Amino acid sequence: MIVLRRLATALPVIAGVIVVTFLLTRALPGDPAVYFAGPAATSQAIEEIRHRLGFDRTLPVQFLDYLQRLAHGDLGTSLTTGQPVTTELLTRLPASAELMLLALCLSIAIAVPLGIAAAMRPGSPVDHACRVVTTAGVSLPTFFTGLLLVYVFYYLLGVAPAPLGRLDVFDSAPPQHSGFYLIDSLLAGDFETFRAALGQLVLPAATMAIFTLAPLARITRAAMLGALGSEFIRTARASGLARHRIVFVYAFRNAVLPVITTLGMVFSFMLGANVLVEKVFAWPGLGSYAVEALIASDYAPVQGFVLMMALLYVLLNLVIDLVYGLVDPRVRLEA
Amino acid sequence: MTATLRHAGYVVRENPVTAFAFALFFLFALCAALGPVLAPYDPFASDTAEALTGPSAAHWFGTDQLGRDILSRIVVATRLDLGIAVTSVALAFGFGTLAGLGAGYYGGWIDGIVGRGVDTIMAFPLFVLAMGIVAALGNNVANIVYATAIINLPIYARLARAEANVRRSAGFVEAARLCGNSEARIVLGQLLPNIMPLMMVQVSLTLGYAILNAAGLSFIGLGVRPPTAEWGIMVAEGASFIVSGEWWVAFFPGIVLMAAVFCFNLMGDGLRDIVDPQRRT
Amino acid sequence: MRRRDFLKRTAAAAGTAATASYVFPARAQSHKDTLLTLSEGGPNNLDVMGVGTNRPGYEASWNTYDRLVTYGVKKDADGNDHYDSAKIAPELAESWDLGDMSVTFKLRKDAKFHDGTPVTAKDVKWSFDRAMTIGGAPTFQFAAGSMQKPEQFVTVDDYTFRIDFLRKDKLTMPDLTVPSAVVINSELAKKHATDKDPWAMDWLKNNEAGGGAFRVEKWTPGQELIYQRFDEWKSGPVPKIQRVIWRIVPSAGNRRALIERGDADISVDLPPKDVAEMANDKKLTVVGSLIESALIYLSMNVKIPPFDNVKVRQAVAYAIPYQKIMDAAMFGRGKPMFGSPGEVTTTEWPQPTPYVTDLAKAKQLLAEAGLPGGFETTLSFDLGYAVTQEPLCVLVQESLAQIGIKVTLNKVPGANWRAEFSKKTLPLLANVFGAWLDFPEYFFYWNYHGQNSLFNDMSYQNPAMDKLIDAARFETDPKKYDEEVEGFITIAFDDVPRIPLFQPWLDVAMQKNVTGYRYWFHRQLDYRQLAKT
Amino acid sequence: MMDTDNAVPLLAVEDLGIEFRTRSGTVRAVDGIRFELRRGETMALVGESGSGKSVTAYAIMGILDGAARITSGTIVFGGLELLQASERAIAEIRGRELAIIFQNPRTALNPIRPVGKQIADILLRHGNVTAAQAPSRAIEMLAKVRIPDPERRARSYPFELSGGMCQRVMIAMALACEPQLLIADEPTTGLDITTQAVIMDLIAELAASQKMATLLITHDLGLASEYCDHIAVMHAGHIVETAPTVALFAAPHHPYTAKLIAATPGGAPNLEALAAIPGALPDLRRVDLPLCRYSERCERAAPACLDRPLPRRAVGEGRGVACHFPL
């Protein structure tokens, strides 16, 4: 019920997203009709193909047409790979999702303890180090971090595998269940593949994690400072509760709320950085798909990608809202 | 005013990092202002005999594929990179703040429209939206500026809206209203100056993000035209040389790019300490 | 020589990686029968006749489908295999009888498609009819060999197939060797045809229905294509490689690293710089073949002033920094097409122009044209070829600035390039053109003829030129033919609407243990002769 | 009062000084205060906000925030010198022997933890009960502070309870381990008038039944006089006067106390006497703070007040005043 109500509030936003995406891609340069017509086509043939593709109709008609196809999950066909965009996006989604989730876990695993440590001793060297390190992380262009990591760990040290996507060329993907190689390989009991997949994931995930450390560490620090300075912590201290209980059960659980809210921004960062990171690591996910399509002015994938990313983001925000509700009884009861 | 200055002095003294950021900022500002004068070589002059030489006394940061001096190109690129960032943030600031003030002060349908627009922009992962906009509008600097402005707009609109909403019925606004000031005058003359300090903090932070964004766009090929020097595109060009060991082509522009963003972020933090000592985020 | 040091260090790193290799074992050695090839892009369609099939698509089709005939083989100057355009060789057809107005093919009786169905003449007929009917590139390609009507294709019996000629055309037989002339398993294809799609375009796009030496085991568009050898293949000696994994690696740097570290067997689409360095390094076999009938060039649109003035065009031709481009953009991987000492004395195409870098002369010509102060213009190029085109254009820009011509560079992305290009509104552009069929008049027909085809990006129209081209196309007298060809080449050089710069190389890097590489006019890999020792 | 048990005070604060270091200077929030509290006794620390009474309470509890520094003095509780004791030892005492309830009970409770659990946390910490017993003991405590339907309320979150209810929960938490001293820091601030009385009565009643000493921190002299045996008046970090309640009201010796009594509605004979105290607390960051911090507001001030050490004279049984010119 709560889910439905939240979904309803997201509807106008989704509508806005669809309209914006449509307008954006209708304005994309490049004429698919010319491409489809082939190198030796006459202008008449190009017109014919344009008519067949429906590009000669008025904008509102095209929009209705677009909506109709969208309702059937049809996002058009990619020129470069010749496949339906929807299929390709869906087959590539797990690759991006696995990467982003691992990056998120990595980022949280580093940023949250860092933020807590900084909040425990504001103004201390730990605090300053936390601030400088995270700020440096968010200042590094992800594509540069990625290149740097590849250069050092693959070209120079040879400890990382080639930046060639999800698995070594001679490894075959584990039987598909979730589409996440880490999970699928474990399900299949194939530890070799698990290790290989993890090896491929480490560098791109680290690249993304470095970029998203800052917002998480900062909000953790601020929220922890806020929580630690709040009156109920004073009460807890006055009640003689043990320090770890005060920090983790009392302060941290309250501080987690703003951290969850910030995840929205972190996801925005990630979905954007994803494009650049995937390009650097030849990751067969959504981002590299979009970049390749963009370079080729292949507009259907770009449109599909932007739309999918926006929908994904709306969905993630929805999930964040729901998780927030699970943690915070106040929200839960209001809804 | 002197109190603010004294407080600023205290913050800078207390926090050497902020002082460092301000110093770095002046260095970048200098490069932006005097770029071509400071550059040791003509940033566009090719010298194929000297192509792809590593850092040396003659070329501190080495040369690129066409033998152009990388240091000179980096120095000259400062104006463009900062220019893109400053212009786009100025646009975002201007339009975002006005829209936000309007929405917060008047409420009603203005608030509705602004809110819906902002929500829609925020529904996109920002970099992806910027990508889409530049791809759609065309591959040039002006469109990078617009795209960066659009994705930064919601931050200002939301901030301004929230502040205006809170202050709408504050004493000084009521007083101005009783004095017979027009509504627009109240918004611009009373509300705007009051929210300026907070906004300035945001400006510094978004400047850093704007630089990153523009560089990211040029990295994927949505950028400025060759042979223009721009940090992002220089990293992209250098990326292909890393494998053959010519690391300097990508490394130096990347490091400078990072330093610039770093500088703005630290400065934003410093400004926040000055403007809003309570919120220690 | 820091570069050498670095490569040594990488080698050392690869050596020390032995310690680290328990983490990421190098598995390449254990796959003697498997070939791993890398390229920048992958096929978008398994059907060579499909709409908008790209070059990698030709490679997929070339190795999975057979044609009636193919070209023989010869050795090039470096001792590498090179297709022989002078010799037509059997493929599905065991023999043929070339008559005056028809050709009759005898098909192999033992040839089978991958599903075991025997290959018969009706499959050939269906395939060629398909090429005739569906329009677009295949129809056009067949027409180039004067094959324009389905009635020309006759099934005599199951193993005899005849083509009737509309007119005698020396391109008819060569045209049957091109990738488009594939023979499709018609029974299989028809099962997947629908009323709306009688030629099974949709199905064949993602599924292969051939009888070639390899069959498609798995295709992940944009990522990889895995082939398995077809052991029943009869149209030639059974390939030595059992399995081919073709990986799409968009980043040139990664392709280079993979081949240098021994993770891949063959890498194509390498930037000239990498090729030059790897060739120097001698750790890999680097085969570079000049691409026939191909040119990297600058075109000036003669309909757009001031390029309507021949003196301006000549001035530009004299202001090109040819050698600099050769060094910094091409890294020597191209054959210079400038600085010929004298008159046109050969029909060889492409051949060098008389132009050299001479800024004084360029300035003088510009002054004679009434533009002593120069002018402003835009130089456009395709982002897809940016690796060489961008430095090339930057150097041209710099050099033209010295004679007062202010050039703005315009980087046009991929598919957009074709649209921009076809509008013929670009005043100055850099581009590459390569023809499948290696005849000067064929090249000129598409590029310089007043019919103003898509590839005549100069919008050049000259009746004298047209007359010579048209005459040469159907000329039977060799002497006259030479005169005609030399004639139109001379005009092209004097009028210089297009400035030839280089004839590009087709470069392929492979491990030392890979043998049997053969250059083909379509510039794609042929796996059938490849072997790993 | 002659009971041998009471010969040694339960709590003795001696010469306590507390400073806060801030960006704009050092605030000398508490300066040389002393007072004693015996078992079962109730005492009020009364003063304007900012006078240092809450800071004193926090110092006793050992929960001053990081910016605070204790510059002098001792706090002896039940024979233990709290300022010298280990953090461990103090943590043992806090919540068990020594408890506090705060103003604004709603924010003083953890907003996302059911109140029953918050009580149980304390019970568990101080080892009186097992994990299995804790919930029912918490419910018992809720019943003890007269919360209706305690089983259900134990599962409630603070935002679901009224302010009065929350303060009852606070009291239940404070009294869970039957402490010897309860500090009530403005316990009725933020509650409506009727609830205020109910809460104060509840505290008084439970304190009496448990023979617990109570230190009431309040700005409300009327409230203090109603519930406490003794009153200590604080001004700008100094205790200016201590006295038994009745004696204090009968004859205030410090000019500030007199003004305070005059400003308290219940104690004032008529409305005209309900005079506000002129001036404000001095800025405690000042370097040139006069030795008598009231001197700048005082009608009786003389030059001596500025630079002569404040006398702390005893003026009767359990009475003291810090003034050169007492009334």
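Residues 277 and 330 of chain C are 12 Å apart (CA to CA).
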